[in-house]
Each structure stands twice: as structure tokens, then as C-alpha cells.
């Protein structure tokens, strides 16, 4: 590992005069509010979260991804890319051996000390964390700019925006439905109104019963759900087809959601990753709320 670190440290200390001409330089602001600049379009990209991997592929730069982390399972091509650990602990030696010229980090998901170390070694680190629907489209466009795949990225961002806008128009006059979205089971967790999932709930005509809580993904007591008595309970679960979390609530037949059988499963990868597949997850959520309206 020492040799790899020394090589990258040496590159970081090269004089500015040795850098390529700035004519091809491209810069973008990341979600830390820092400008990241490249001398030329990125050709070897490391994506350090499953969501980052999806976004890079969506930006039209999938063939340039040389490193991913565990659970980067979409698109299928991502499974063929070398994995360098997981989002909470990256194998830096393995990462550096792949010689990336751009690292896509996760603001609150990757260890700060590892991202800072990569920056000290001279690697451009572009950190992302979309929290709103529009920020997902914006992230695709910024990544496409850094990779020089603007045409593909802008087309995908436009498709995503158009699809979400169409859903919003379709449900603009829908009757409100109170919703509890369960993001985790132990500890029991939900989302507040700052989260993109809550934005989808609103887009579908729903009302997040825990919208006013302070934390983005707060822990709550089971008693709080019983007191809120939502008309709909939505959950992802530990897998793409597991409804175990919803089954738990059937022990409370007094809940409106249980009494009306308004317990709906949405595959977590479609709703809990801030990627273009959120459009598919949003359609499923909107369909679920429409079913709940019909059961009144």
C-alpha cells in the first residue's frame, strides 16, 4: 500500500505548470458546496455508494466506472466492476490500485477521514447527497459534465423531471391521505419532511404524519405510530420482496391502515435511493395511495 500512496502523493505535489492545458477543464459544485475541477473529462471513476453508482450510469458514464462498493447492484453491469469494500469502510489500497481520476463520495455515508485522505493524495473527490427530487436530476447533470457525457446525462435528467412532473399533475387534486413511511424496523425509524421520500408522499397527495420531526430520519416509538393512526402504512423492508415489516403492524387491528388493509410494500431500491429509479417507486407509491382512497 505504501508504494501506491507514495505514487499518488507525488502526483499531488507536481507543479501546476505540469498540468494539462485548462482548455478542457470542467468544474462542478458538489453537495458540500465545494467546487471540484478536472483538467479533462473523468475516464476512471470510483463510486463509493450504490446510489452514486446508479447516478454515474444514469449520467451516461457507466463504462468509465472502475470501482464500486458492496450492494452496487444496479444496473446489472455494475456487478462486473471491482468492489473496494463497502460505503462505511473502503479498502484504500484496492481503490488506489485502480487509479481513479475522480471519486464520487457520499456526504454522510462514507467515512470523512477516508475521503479527506484521498483528497490529500491529490484525487478529486466529488461528494453527493441529493435530498430533493430536483437535486437527483441536478446530480445527474453535474456528473455528466465531469465525465463529458452531457448529452446522455441531460436526456436522462429531463426524462426523470418530466416523469415526476407528470405524476405531480395527475395527483394535484387528489384527496389527502395520512401516511406513515417506515424506513427501518429496529430501531423503528421514519422520515421527516426534508427527505425526498416525504416529497414523494406529498406529490402523491399524501400527508406524512411525522413530517414535523427534527431529524431527517428520526427514531420513533411504536406508540407514536399508534397515536398518529395513519390511513396508510408504507414500508420497504430488508429485501426487495420482503413484507415482514408490514406484517408486524397486523397485530394492531385498531389501526385504520390495518383495518382497511392499507399496508403497502415498495421495493427499497426504488424509493430509498436518490436515483432515477425513484420515478418507478413514486408511481408505485401513488398507486398505493389511490387504492387507499378507494377503500374509504
Automatic annotation (TrEMBL):
Signal peptide from the UniProt entry: 1-23
CDD domains for this protein: BtuF (cd01144)
Lineage, top ranks: Bacteria, Pseudomonadati, Pseudomonadota, Gammaproteobacteria, Oceanospirillales
Keyword Signal attributed: yes
Name assigned to this protein: Cobalamin-binding protein
Source taxon at top rank: Bacteria
Domain Fe/B12 periplasmic-binding, chain residue ranges per copy: 44-296
Key words, A-Z: Signal
Amino acid at each position: 500500500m505504501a508504494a501506491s500512496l507514495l505514487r499518488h502523493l507525488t502526483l499531488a505535489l507536481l507543479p501546476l505548470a505540469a498540468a494539462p492545458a485548462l482548455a478542457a477543464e470542467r468544474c462542478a459544485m458538489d453537495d458540500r458546496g465545494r467546487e471540484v475541477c478536472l483538467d479533462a473529462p473523468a475516464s476512471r471513476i470510483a463510486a463509493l455508494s450504490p446510489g452514486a453508482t446508479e447516478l454515474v450510469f444514469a449520467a451516461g458514464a457507466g463504462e468509465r466506472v472502475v470501482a464500486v462498493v458492496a450492494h452496487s447492484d444496479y444496473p446489472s453491469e455494475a456487478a462486473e466492476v471491482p468492489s473496494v469494500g463497502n460505503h462505511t469502510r473502503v479498502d484504500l489500497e484496492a481503490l488506489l490500485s485502480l487509479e481513479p481520476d475522480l471519486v464520487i463520495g457520499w456526504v454522510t455515508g462514507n467515512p470523512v477521514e477516508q475521503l479527506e485522505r484521498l483528497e490529500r493524495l491529490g484525487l478529486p473527490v466529488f461528494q453527493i447527497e441529493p435530498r430533493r427530487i430536483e437535486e437527483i436530476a441536478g446530480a445527474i447533470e453535474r456528473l455528466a459534465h465531469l465525465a463529458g457525457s452531457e448529452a446522455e446525462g441531460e436526456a436522462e435528467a429531463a426524462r426523470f423531471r418530466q416523469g415526476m412532473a407528470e405524476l405531480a399533475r395527475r395527483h394535484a387534486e387528489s384527496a389527502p391521505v395520512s401516511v406513515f413511511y417506515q424506513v427501518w424496523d429496529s430501531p423503528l425509524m421514519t422520515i421527516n419532511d426534508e427527505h425526498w421520500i416525504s416529497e414523494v408522499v406529498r406529490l402523491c397527495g399524501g400527508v406524512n404524519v411525522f413530517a414535523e420531526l427534527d431529524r431527517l430520519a428520526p427514531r420513533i416509538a411504536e406508540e407514536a405510530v399508534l397515536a398518529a393512526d395513519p390511513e396508510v402504512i408504507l414500508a420497504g423492508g430488508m429485501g426487495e420482496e420482503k413484507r415482514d415489516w408490514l406484517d408486524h403492524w397486523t397485530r394492531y387491528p385498531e389501526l385504520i391502515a390495518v383495518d382497511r388493509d392499507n399496508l403497502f410494500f415498495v421495493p427499497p431500491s426504488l424509493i430509498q435511493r436518490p436515483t432515477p429509479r425513484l420515478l418507478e417507486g413514486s408511481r408505485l407509491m401513488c398507486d398505493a395511495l389511490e387504492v387507499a382512497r378507494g377503500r374509504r
